[in-house]
Design brief:
Blueprint: H1 2-13, E1 27-31, E2 34-37, E3 48-58, E4 61-71, E5 75-81, E6 87-94, E7 97-102, H2 113-124, H3 127-134, E8 140-144, E9 147-151, E10 157-163, E11 175-180, E12 185-192
Antiparallel strand pairs: 1-2, 3-4, 3-12, 4-5, 5-6, 6-7, 8-9, 9-10, 10-11, 11-12
Protein name: DUF3261 domain-containing protein
InterPro entries: DUF3261
Pfam families: DUF3261 (PF11659)
């Protein structure tokens, strides 16, 4: 049971905020009472399938979660596994709809999969694909060489994302470090070769 609580904690770290409204289709809460429309899967610019290991640090503790990420022109699919290899979460985004399937008994404790998807797409999708979606709400995602910074409508830094190399369209870096400044946690994503 302790392992399930650790896995739930890792997945919860992906969320910026709790949901305060019910977004529809491909809209996701980016802050309380603020939704953003996700870019299309095709705007990633490539098709890929990678295995990744997510390491989360918060409250002085470190936890890991293996995931499989698949991106195609029509969909984004993320599958999270327990440490013993059981699928605990599947997120699917296609045709402007987001679907979430969780292991029986965990759906009441897992956060909205839309938040997980939002953070993945903020980390990997080209800046150009985000501009028409963030501009209407006054948010910005700025990229400089090997990092990105997410600002809210008040100009406050919400998250910093660092890559082990300059981010190229359609490519997933070997190492990504995501720091959520408002909730004080760090996530490192290692793409396995």
């Amino acid at each position: 049971m302790k392992k399930i609580h650790i896995l739930v904690g890792i997945i919860m770290l992906f969320g910026f905020t709790g949901c305060t409204s019910v977004p529809r289709g491909n809209q996701v809460n980016i802050a309380p009472n603020t939704t953003v429309t996700l870019p299309s899967p095709a705007s990633f610019g490539a098709t890929t399938s990678v295995s990744q290991l997510i390491t989360a640090n918060w409250n002085g503790e470190t936890h890991t979660l293996p995931v499989q990420l698949q991106i195609s022109e029509n969909s984004v699919v993320l599958v999270g596994f327990s440490s013993w290899g059981t699928r605990i979460l599947t997120l699917s985004y296609s045709e402007n709809e987001i679907e979430e399937d969780t292991l029986a008994g965990l759906n009441a404790v897992l956060p909205d999969g839309r938040q997980v998807l939002l953070n993945i797409m903020l980390t990997l999708w080209p800046i150009e694909s985000w501009i028409p979606h963030l501009s209407p709400i006054g948010w910005q995602l700025i990229e400089r060489d090997d990092n990105r910074v997410l600002f809210n409508a008040n100009g406050e830094t919400i998250a910093e994302i660092k890559y082990d190399e300059p981010l190229l369209a359609g490519k997933i870096p070997d190492t990504i470090r995501f720091e959520q400044l408002r909730q004080d946690y760090q996530i490192t994503i290692n793409t396995l070769k």
